[in-house]
């Protein structure tokens, strides 16, 4: 059997949720589990985060999966419904919907009688993605308030730059949000992981952490551990071949790496078909048998070549660590020109998943 495995650390998820509670003690927590729990597996993540007050999802199907897994939490569908045909299932499952566009409001105004829906009206305070203009907030509220099919109204907005310590943008968004709904009833929600950690004044009634629950960092040159978080995924495989290459030999597709000296090269059973980034250049760090290694040559679909110069103990069968607590996914992401979020979300179905629920976590923070 192929050894390529993503091991999910359930205690890390629980630890990270506790960290959220410490940082935002007065807010309720909506755990964001979109994209299959950021690639960690929706049901297992929701089970480990069952202490959260709500879950945030990006598709109705994910909401349905959570209900089927027995989750009775509030579930919030971030893009809301987009056709009348979604409404019966939304109502049957009791899923909260974000309302961000006039087209959705018209669908609601024409909706048949039925169980009422809880809404989160989204204002666009500077992201220019989803949401009503702040100046429209009162008018939208009046229309929504008049609908018999709406049971509860809450408010949300989303930050564009909280991860870049852009105080001006984030504080401007906070001010526009507060001004737009001043005096209107309903709970407020603004924060993603970055704002939750960097802008305590934005916590509001509900925080919406995603990345930090998985131990991911949203801040440049910081790993999750630097922020007191525990990485929740370890991606490993094994060496299936080791070869001696002479100085001047070229490695892999396109021969993009030329051996500067004689060196041992290990071939690991992982590639971009598993979600390891093809853009990871020569020099991207890996660990082999606990020692430092680095990618050499181009990442193939199924295979990865690794410089074993610093890992003399490595041989066929040795474990290869691609990322995890001992090798921050942020380091791999930085080398590959992306963020840790994309790497963990991108692990493919070919990779087997395992759960490590009982090991003692080396405590950071
Ligand atoms: C994805 C998402 C979040 C979580 O963002 P993180 O950076 O992962 O914490 C919060 N709110 C909304 C609306 C989102 O789409």
Structural write-up:
25% of the residues lie in helices and 23% in strands. The chain is elongated and about 75 Å long. The strands form three sheets. The protein has an eight-stranded parallel β-sheet. The protein has a six-stranded antiparallel β-barrel with strand order 10-13-16-15-14-17. It has two domains: 10-223, TIM Barrel; 233-362, Beta Barrel (Lyase, Ornithine Decarboxylase, Chain A, domain 1), CATH 2.40.37.10. It has helices at residues 10-23, 34-38, 42-48, 60-68, 87-93, 102-109, 137-145, 167-180, 193-198, 329-336, 340-345, and strands at residues 5-9, 28-32, 54-57, 74-77, 96-99, 117-122, 150-156, 188-189, 206-207, 233-245, 250-251, 257-258, 263-268, 285-288, 291-295, 304-307, 319-323, 352-356. It has 365 residues and is α/β, with parallel strands linked by helices. A hairpin with an 8-residue loop joins strand 15 (291-295) and strand 16. Pyridoxal-5'-phosphate binds next to helix 9. Pyridoxal-5'-phosphate (PLP) binds at residues 32, 34, 78, 158, 192-194, 208-211, 218.
Main features:
365 residues; alpha/beta; TIM Barrel; Lyase, Ornithine Decarboxylase, Chain A, domain 1; eight-stranded parallel beta sheet; six-stranded antiparallel beta barrel; 25% helix; elongated; disordered C terminus; binds pyridoxal-5'-phosphate
